[in-house]
TrEMBL record:
Occurrences of domain Uracil-DNA glycosylase-like (ranges): 28-189
Protein's UniProt keywords contain DNA-binding: no
Family annotation (CDD domains): UDG-F4_TTUDGA_SPO1dp_like (cd10030)
Matches recorded under SUPFAM superfamilies: Uracil-DNA glycosylase-like (SSF52141)
Name of the protein this chain belongs to: Uracil-DNA glycosylase
Keywords: 4Fe-4S, DNA damage, DNA repair, Hydrolase, Iron, Iron-sulfur, Metal-binding
Cited Gene3D superfamilies: Uracil-DNA glycosylase-like domain
Pfam families: UDG
InterPro entries, per database record: UDG_Type-4/5 (IPR051536), Uracil-DNA_glycosylase-like (IPR005122), Uracil-DNA_glycosylase-like_sf (IPR036895)
Organism of origin: Clostridium ganghwense
Keyword Zinc: no
Length: 198
């Protein structure tokens, strides 16, 4: 079985040798190993790369607030990503200034880290995997979209693990309406109940 150090070295190797698209640094997962709960996000952003940890930027603040609201602290869960480097795109403005922004990881980029994530799951040996958004959902399950399955507990035969799909916390930024917020909050409460059954 791999160790956390093996995983770190493999992520570094993949990220630092990748030349097909622009990327802006890489990180590993964070938190205890083993752990009963594993959260899997999409890919790190700028703040995550700066601080070397997943979910420590704006989406991370939202995430941690809701996590704490159900009585769980960050120190007690493992948090990782589907793609371990920061996918970026750059645009040159009229003044010649270049701006850098995040982009979603491509399917081929997610594939680069397939074994790394599988091995991290084996090492963490969680009772439940909470997927955050469509990228980890499609990577780990047969579901086609988060809309069809969020807020419910499923047993995934292939992984032999419970999976709880949730919207990505940054979806709250894109869906600034009360209805979405209420549904998102409800999903966290459902997660709280699901955790009691494990
Ligand atoms: N969004 C993610 O999906 N992962 C992170 O680590 C940070 C933001």
């Amino acid at each position: 079985m791999s160790t956390l150090e093996d995983l770190r070295l493999r992520i570094k190797e993949i990220a630092e040798n990748y030349e097909d698209e622009k990327t802006g640094g890489w990180i590993t997962g964070d938190g205890p190993v083993p752990s009963d709960i594993l959260f899997v996000g999409e890919a790190p952003g700028k703040t995550e790369v700066e601080k070397g940890k997943p979910f420590v930027g704006m989406a991370g603040e939202t995430f941690e607030g809701y996590l704490n609201s159900i009585g769980v602290t960050r120190n007690n869960v493992r948090i990782t990503n589907t793609c371990f480097f920061r996918p970026i795109k750059t645009k040159e403005g009229k003044t010649g200034r270049t701006t850098t922004s995040n982009r979603p990881p491509k399917t081929s980029e997610v594939k680069l880290f397939k074994e790394v994530l599988d091995d991290e799951i084996a090492l963490v040996n969680p009772k439940i995997i909470v997927t955050l958004g469509n990228v980890p959902l499609k990577r780990l399950t047969e579901f086609k979209s988060i809309g069809e399955c969020h807020g419910n507990l499923y047993f995934n035969e292939e992984l032999q693990k419970y999976i709880f799909p949730m919207y990505h916390p940054s979806a709250l930024t894109y869906n600034r309406n009360d209805e979405f917020k209420a549904m998102y909050e409800q999903d966290w409460l459902k997660l709280k109940e699901a955790l009691k059954t494990l």
